[in-house]
């Protein structure tokens, strides 16, 4: 029997752009497993998001600087402690031997998530910043990225900060807040994709929202699996906002209905118009227009 290499693909980002939606969609295919996907099966006190941050945490051992990398010691207490017992090996093994042990453990974990399905992948938005490191460990592995109107991303980030009690519910989105997130996170995400020289299947949140069936079919085909229009629609139905919110909290919400305590906010396009002034919106568009055009061109992003 041939050895199957796990994982088979990654959803690499972008943040606040629908990566959990993509994971849920792919996980709804009969031959594709993708995690984390709601509901999250965790122990009390453990990570309730389900991401294991494999690459952006392991990258902290690399000499190269990676944006948003996490301390290696996070493996001791976070991510459901999947790698906790391997952390002490850092002082006893060579770097290559250590990485091999982590890959073996990650493969075991991915295989558990795969179940009886043919292929398995992980979704973690921060991976967009360590693409070359990913290729060092898993050469040629398939990657998917979902991108979203920066204005909606900023609004989503604003409410994410409210959910984490870092902002008050009645705080408006200021220009300083919007531009800070724009320059610290959004622009670097585009630059990371533009600097990468290997294939990535890139889709937009807006296209997925408006043209779900063809968007899903393109993703599944990119991963080498078969999909019909009927199956694509079934995947969309299973990963709908209504079903996702019910899995998240037990209470189903319709698109547009907000729960500030949930990471699944509204599931709509263009909500920025309710929270950003025209002046802030124009500055965001001006700062990202060229980067978005270059990204759409490089990765042949379908928009209509």
Describe the 3D structure.
Helices cover 45% and strands 8% of the residues. It is α/β, with parallel strands linked by helices and 304 residues long. The chain has a domain at 1-147. The chain has a five-stranded parallel sheet. Helix 7 (175-195) runs parallel beside helix 12 (278-298). The protein is globular, with a radius of gyration of 19 Å. The relative contact order is 0.17.
Terminal CA distance: 44 Å
Relative strand content: 5-15%
What order do the strands of the largest sheet run in, or round the barrel if closed? 2-3-1-4-5
In total, how many beta strands? Answer: 5
Cα radius of gyration in angstroms: 19 Å
Q: Taking all residues together, what is the mean pLDDT?
A: 93
Oligomeric state of the chains in view: single chain
Number of helices: 12
Task: Indicate the percent of residues in helices.
Answer: 40-55%
Main sheet properties: 5 strands, parallel
Look at the helices and sheets and give the structural class: alpha/beta
Low-confidence segments, ≥5 residues, pLDDT <50?
Answer: 44-48
Taken from the alpha-carbon principal axes, the silhouette is globular
H/E series, N to C? EHEHHHEHEHHEHHHHH
What is the topology?
Elements: E1 9-13, H1 19-27, E2 32-35, H2 54-58, H3 74-77, H4 95-114, E3 119-123, H5 131-137, E4 142-147, H6 150-163, H7 175-195, E5 201-204, H8 205-210, H9 212-222, H10 229-238, H11 241-249, H12 278-298
Helix pairs in contact: 6-7, 7-12, 9-10
């Amino acid at each position: 029997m041939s050895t199957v290499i796990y994982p088979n693909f990654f959803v690499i980002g972008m943040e606040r752009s629908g990566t959990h939606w993509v994971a849920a969609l792919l996980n709804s295919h009969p031959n594709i497993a993708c995690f984390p996907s709601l509901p999250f099966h965790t122990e009390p006190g453990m990570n309730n998001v389900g991401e294991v941050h494999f690459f952006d945490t392991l990258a902290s051992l690399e000499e190269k600087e990676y944006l948003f990398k996490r301390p290696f010691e996070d493996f001791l207490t976070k991510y459901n402690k999947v790698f906790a017992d391997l952390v002490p090996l850092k002082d006893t093994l060579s770097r290559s031997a250590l990485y091999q042990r982590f890959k073996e453990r990650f493969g075991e974990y991915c295989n558990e998530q795969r179940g009886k399905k043919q292929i398995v992948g992980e979704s973690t938005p921060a991976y967009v910043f360590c693409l070359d490191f990913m290729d060092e460990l898993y050469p040629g592995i398939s990657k998917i990225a979902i991108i979203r109107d920066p204005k909606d991303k900023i609004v989503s980030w604003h409410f994410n900060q409210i959910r984490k009690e870092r902002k008050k519910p009645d705080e408006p989105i200021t220009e300083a807040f919007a531009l800070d997130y724009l320059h610290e996170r959004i622009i670097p995400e585009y630059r990371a994709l533009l600097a990468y020289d290997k294939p990535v299947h890139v889709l937009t949140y807006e296209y997925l929202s408006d043209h779900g069936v063809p968007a899903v079919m393109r993703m599944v085909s990119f991963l080498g699996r078969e999909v019909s229009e009927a199956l694509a629609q079934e995947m969309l139905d299973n990963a709908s906002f209504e079903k996702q919110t019910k899995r998240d909290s037990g209470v189903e919400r319709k698109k547009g209905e907000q729960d500030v305590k949930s990471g699944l906010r509204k599931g709509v396009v263009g909500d920025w118009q309710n929270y950003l002034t025209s002046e802030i919106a124009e500055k965001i568009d001006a700062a990202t227009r060229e980067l978005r055009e270059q990204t759409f061109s490089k990765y042949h992003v379908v928009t209509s």
